[in-house]
Amino acid sequence: MVNSVKLLLFAFVVCIGFGKTTLFAQTQAATAAGVEQKPRLNAFKTAPLGPMVGNWGITYERGQVFKDHISLEVNVGYKSAPLLFGGLLNDAGAGMSGFYINAGPKIYFGKQEFYIPGMVRTHPMFGWYFKPEVGVRHIAYSSDSSSDVKSTAARLVFNIGKQWISNNFVFELYTGVGYAYRNYQGEGDFLEEVKDEINENFPITAQGGIRLGFLSK
Fold first, then answer.
1. Is the model more confident about 42 or about 186?
2. SS3 for the chain, per residue?
3. Residue 16 is part of which domain span?
4. Would you state the pLDDT for residue 128?
5. How many structural domains comprise the chain?
6. Within this chain, do residues 88 and 162 fall inside the same structural domain, yes or no?
7. Which of 92, 194, 108 minimizes the C-alpha distance to 153?
8. Is 139:178 a contact under the CB 8 Å cutoff?
9. pLDDT digits (tens, 9 = 90+) for 13-25
10. For the chain, does the N or the C end have fewer beta carbons within 10 angstroms?
11. Residue 215 CB: number of other CB atoms within 10 A?
12. Do residue 172 and residue 202 come from a single domain?
């Protein structure tokens, strides 16, 4: 009888020790993965293909601004002549310069990935999202043989995309379509050439691309 009780007590102690060891291992693994730490909610990104179309910008995203799954994203940059697909600008030896700014909320949705199923999500800025954004762009087109043409555009774009986060590295794919209102200031043939060649009288605007970046505290 005494031996049986001792055996039961020994088994009980072993079970408690195993449970504590397992819980400690899970805690250590989660901590190593950054689960128990407060997630970094500041992301700085850039579009590596942007210069191909003349966009030199930086994007800042702040997570959990409105709700846990809604962040705020702002994109600002300098606009230059495209490195590729210059069209009229290359043919006429013309140049362009300007700036742009876009901003909007990113609403994350859908099934999220978890470190421990049912407990902790990988990151609040990870996954599929929908982002309505408003933006303003101002560009000056210049030519040696004509006066400058200035273009100001305001637009509303609806984007859908997915963002991945791993070890504080950010990778994003997105595409969007929307409406743009444009106003031109200038005169002469160069104005008409700019409007016709670039086809910016068309009210529909579209965009897409990839972004790379990192998370910061």
1. 42
2. CHHHHHHHHHHHHHHHHHHHHHHHHHHHHHHHCCCCCCCCCEEEEECCCHHHHCEEEEEEEEEEEEECCEEEEEEEEEEECCCCCCCHHHHHCCEEEEEEEEEEEEEEECCCCEEECCCEECCCCCEEEEEEEEEEEEEEEEECCEEEEEEEEEEEEEEEEEEEEECCEEEEEEEEEEEEEEEEECCCHHHHHHHHHHCCCCCEEEEEEEEEEEEEC
3. 1-32
4. 94
5. 2
6. yes
7. 194
8. no
9. 444 343 333 333 3
10. N
11. 20
12. yes
Cα 73 to chain centroid, rounded:
7
pTM of the predicted model, to two decimals? 0.75
Q: Please name which of 183, 194, 83, 182 lies closest in space to residue 148, comparing C-alpha atoms.
A: 194
**Region 53-81: what's the mean pLDDT?**
93
119 and 201 fall within a common domain? yes
